[in-house]
Specification:
Length: 252
């Protein structure tokens, strides 16, 4: 995991201040306001973009008599649980791990040389494991709560067993901001949020008195600009302009 580093976040806030004219005009936004704008930009991107998540595999050691486990907060979705055994034999070791057995190498070599057995024996063994697994419950049915991060197994665990969890996790914020295609989107959304926030602040007073008459503030213009920029950025996400992948074809 990436360590928490605020350097990239601070750089985005500095960029937004300069784009709003800091140094030439007064910007009525504090650091807390800009911090909120950055958080809103990251949250919006994670809500809309597919490449805000990454596919991952995690090991989990099941304990006897325990059916509920708390997973790390970065995990958003659990897709499947893989077991090494076929449902009949469980535990830390599988019924056949061809990459760990010494004689698997001889099967593969004999197949390359044109001998008997070889990959056919390898395939038959895996077909056996698959058939026995369907008959005797190799698959573990589970329930995943994405809010509490609780993984509940609908099975009475009789003994210790190591399983592999196929999950989708949130990409760390530092990884999002380090991406050359994602970082400009987050910066532009932060600026749009800052414009709307600044426009609402200035909109409370339509004009202020000056030596040459009243000075009109641009509160309404900032709000309209921010809303238009947010609409453009959302359309950019729909066109996968930040490198996210579109939905693929589903057969079946």
């Amino acid at each position: 995991m990436y360590s928490e580093d605020t350097q990239m976040r601070d750089q985005i806030k500095d960029d937004v201040r300069l784009m709003l004219g800091a140094g030439k005009v007064r910007i009525e936004l504090s650091d807390e306001h800009l911090e909120l704008c950055v958080r809103m930009a990251v949250d919006r991107y994670r809500m809309q973009a597919s490449n805000a998540y990454e596919e991952s595999f995690l090991r989990l050691m099941l304990e006897a008599g325990q059916s509920t486990y708390t997973l790390p907060k970065e995990i958003e979705q659990v897709k499947k649980i893989y077991r090494r055994g076929n449902g009949v034999v469980s535990g830390t070791n599988g019924t056949m791990d061809p990459f760990a057995l010494a004689y698997a190498n001889s099967y593969l070599l004999s197949a390359v040389k044109g001998g008997s057995g070889g990959l056919l024996t390898y395939e038959l063994q895996h077909q056996f494991d698959e058939t026995v697994g369907r008959m005797f419950g190799r698959e573990i049915i589970f329930q995943w709560n994405s809010v509490s991060k609780h993984l509940t197994l609908n099975r009475d665990i009789r003994g210790g067993e190591e399983v592999m969890i196929h999950a989708y996790m949130l990409k760390p914020e530092e990884m999002l901001m380090a991406d050359n295609m994602i970082r400009p989107w987050i910066r532009d959304w932060t600026q749009a949020e800052a414009k709307i926030m600044l426009g609402r602040i200035r909109g409370k007073i339509s004009a202020i008195p000056g030596p040459n008459g009243a000075i009109n503030l641009n509160g309404d213009a900032l709000v309209h600009e921010g809303q238009a920029e947010k609409e453009y950025l959302l359309n950019q996400l729909k066109r996968y302009g930040t490198g996210s992948m579109p939905l693929s074809f589903i057969i079946g």
